[in-house]
Design a protein that fits this description.
The longest helix has 16 residues. This protein folds into 2 domains: 221 residues, Rossmann fold; 67 residues, Alpha-Beta Plaits, CATH 3.30.70. A 6-stranded mixed beta sheet has the order 6-7-8-3-9-10, sandwiched between helices. Strands 2-1-4-5 form a 4-stranded antiparallel beta sheet. A 4-stranded antiparallel beta sheet has the order 12-13-11-14. It is of the alpha/beta class and 309 residues long. The chain contains 10 helices and 14 strands.
Length: 309
């Protein structure tokens, strides 16, 4: 799949000497959903701002749809729709006039059919003649996306798109982003909600202290780095882990009524079979056995902590 955004050796150093980005390389594929994860100050918003022409890079090169973001900024910018964190809208305009205005800023000819389709995709069509001030918070966030799509961009940047919204609305926004993918829009979102990336992203990028730690297919990442825990409930509590089981690195939980055992899904041998046999040999009786896959959050935290050490 071809790259629609190509970021090569990009660094950003501010006037006070702070290096927000340090040699970032990233290829974003056409029609994918890429989630960019990172703690506060990692460089997520700085990178998006440079790609979208809001800020300038110090060194490196960025191309959007084959256009250089500095020397061919008009062509590059036409391909991009940006949804910022802050809700900044014209309160007394109608929804339709608001997105007409955004389309006009890019010199695009009138196309009411296209704008109607955008509003339908975002479940805003029945509000097209309503004033922005009357919309709910969730509708205003969808209107921000509509304005970003008004000039028919191929790439959509969403900077913390569901910040401060409730869980139900967040899931509604996820469905909206999936709809846009089906229409061929490439979406790049930054988020603090790990479950957001886990729910909708095709690939995950992790950034910390201006460095890209990895970019990988979500499913492959979780399969490669994910671990599982097995929980063994006992019929009777134990005070300590028997010596015969000490080499398994078990954790005693639930007041001595259960063990937890972490194993690597990549290993040829997980040790589970021998563990269960040794449990019986130690005279322990099991009530129940359960497994739990590590989440993307576990993987993310582990990656960031590993790089900090």
């Amino acid at each position: 799949m071809p790259s629609v955004v190509s970021i090569q050796h990009v660094s950003k150093i501010f006037s006070d000497g702070f290096k927000a980005l340090d040699g970032v390389d990233l290829e974003i594929k056409d029609s994918e959903i890429l989630a960019l994860l990172g703690p506060n100050g990692a460089g997520k918003t700085t990178l998006i701002s440079i790609i979208c022409g809001i800020s300038s890079l110090t060194t490196g090169k960025i191309q959007v749809g084959g256009y250089d973001v500095e020397s061919q900024y008009r062509k590059a910018r036409e391909m991009i729709g940006l949804v910022p964190q802050e809700i900044a809208l014209e309160p007394f305009e109608t929804v339709m006039n608001s997105i007409r205005f955004s389309r006009g800023l890019f010199g695009k000819p009138k196309n009411e059919d296209y704008l109607d389709e955008v509003l339908k995709t975002l479940s805003l069509y029945d509000k097209k003649n309503a004033r922005v001030i009357t919309l709910s918070g969730g509708m205003k966030r969808r209107l921000l996306i509509a304005k970003a799509l008004a000039h028919e961009p191929k790439i959509l940047f969403l900077d913390e798109p569901t910040a401060g919204v409730d869980v139900e609305l967040r899931k509604d926004m996820w469905q909206t982003i999936k709809k846009l993918k089906r229409k061929g829009v490439t979406t790049i979102l930054t988020t603090h909600y790990i479950e957001e990336a886990e729910a909708i992203a095709d690939r995950i990028g992790v950034i910390n202290k201006g460095h890209i730690l990895l970019v990988e297919d979500k499913v492959a990442l979780m399969a490669r780095m994910g671990k599982k825990k097995i929980y063994i409930d006992l019929t009777k509590p134990v005070i300590e882990i028997p010596k015969e089981l000490s080499h398994y690195s078990l954790e005693l939980i639930k007041g001595g009524l259960a063990f937890s055992y972490t194993y690597d899904t990549k290993s040829e041998r997980t040790g589970i079979t021998s563990l269960l046999n040794d449990l019986q040999s130690a005279g322990l009786k099991m009530r129940d056995v359960q497994t739990q896959q590590s989440s993307l959050e576990d993987i993310f935290v582990g990656l960031v902590e590993e790089k900090v050490k």
